[in-house]
Amino acid sequence: MKQPLSFLTSFSLAGLLALASASSTAAELSATGDDGREIRLKADGSWEYTSSDRFATSEDGTRVRLKADGSWEFIGNAPVATQEQVRTEALEVTLGDIVAEYKKEKAGKNTRYQSATVFYLNVDVSRYADGLNVDLSQHDRFKVTDSRGNDYPILEVTPQLTQLQPGKEYPFSIRVDGTTEGQFAVGIKYLYLEIDKAVFHSDQNLKFSRRADEAKQKKLN
Question: Where is the signal peptide (predicted)?
Fold first, then answer.
């Protein structure tokens, strides 16, 4: 049963409902009202509370469930998304260094140059989350592009872990073919990394960006 909303909550819901109705998909959306309660935004333009629980964020950024019976529990991180950090309830993924690597090889009398770009990530799993089963072997779930629309083929993702434990941090690296330097690099200002939501079981794809001129340079030989 729908319950009366405060003016502020009604105003927020009006905007969310307008956004939902304008969406080209028929999928339902989730939202949190100004009063801290979870709301389901339906494809037909209606809405409903999903439970009588409310939600809050502690001073250290942890998400708290306030139950109707007066008890409470930590449930994970408070969601945050910036250009270099994405935090979900289950984990926090931070973009570290981006390193352009260069290597030269002898091919007969000629010298051949190879280049690759490595994105370093740190994945911090919330101690309140369940363990995560992950699949890092499918390269089509990772996408690297630049501000000129160029695609960089994924070469490898390491390490190839299959499970992440609560309360632990994991470093990962994503290596792609090519760099932003060279004859086709004029006008490239940004690098973009997108990780499909299926990789870490997030609600949305994880997106990161950084200025291309902030990438570090490394000669391998």
Answer: 1-26
Each residue of 34-63: pLDDT tens digit?
776 778 888 888 888 887 787 777 676 677
30 and 94 in a single domain? The answer is no
Tokens 């629309």 -> residue: 149
Chain-centroid distance of CA 195 in Å reads 6
For residues 120, 151, 146, 154, the Cα torsion angle rounded to the nearest 10 degrees is 0
d(CA 178, CA 44): 46
Q: How far is CA 104 from the centre of its chain?
A: 34
Q: Same structural domain for residues 158 and 203?
A: yes
Answer whether residue 166 is part of any domain: yes
The answer to whether residues 164 and 128 touch, using CB atoms and an 8 Å cutoff, is: no
Identify whether residues 48 and 133 lie together within a single domain: no
pLDDT one-digit tens code per residue, 60-111: 667 777 777 878 765 666 677 899 999 888 899 999 999 999 998 887 788 8
Count up the domains in the chain and report the number.
2
CATH of the domain at 172: 2.60.40.1240
d(CA 167, CA 126): 5
pTM of the predicted model, to two decimals?
A: 0.69
The token pair at 22 is 């304008």
Residues 158 and 206: their CA atoms lie apart, in Å, by 18
Ramachandran sector of residue 182 (left: φ over 0; alpha: ψ -120 to 50; beta: rest):
left
Neighbour tally for 14: CB within 10 Å: 11
CB 208 within 8 A of CB 84: yes
